[in-house]
Amino acid sequence: MSYPEPYSVYPPAGGPIAAPEGSRAVARVLSGLCGLVVTPVALGLLAYGSYLHQRQVAASFAEHGDALGITLTVAGAVLLFGVALLGAWSGTGPAVGGLVWGLVPGVITLVSPRSAFDLLNLLPRGQMTVGVAGWMSSGAFLATGFLLLGAGLAVRLARRRR
């Protein structure tokens, strides 16, 4: 005489068994590359747009800002939002973008401002370079870098807890 397995209709005590996760290497590499490419574009648009807007407002105490400056600033902010959203794919994108394009220039500016401003010679001369210099000296690159790095690390920690 054979007996059926007891409680065979119930799932295991730990809950349903999840399928093994596949490799996340492709998502990490692509997210990291997107973070490296999109972050400097976003920061450049933000710096240049805010410079144009600030110049318009400061020059004439205008009731309205520079339309191009506002548009570029919003476009840069939307791109940075996109870099943060890369965290849904992999936390590598925001973390690498924030580290390379935010924290490193921000720390260099704090430790050795002369060296940081010498790096600006790599950019073409113009208003965008002035905007980037303003962002560097105000600490905006440092703050943005910390925010993106924090977003990437938060995604990584949240994914690890699942």
UniProtKB/TrEMBL annotation:
Stretches that traverse the bilayer: 29-48, 68-88, 95-112, 132-155
UniProt keyword list: Membrane, Transmembrane, Transmembrane helix
Lineage: superkingdom: Bacteria
Protein's name according to its UniProt entry: DUF4190 domain-containing protein
Organism this protein belongs to: Amycolatopsis silviterrae
Lineage start: Bacteria, Bacillati, Actinomycetota, Actinomycetes, Pseudonocardiales
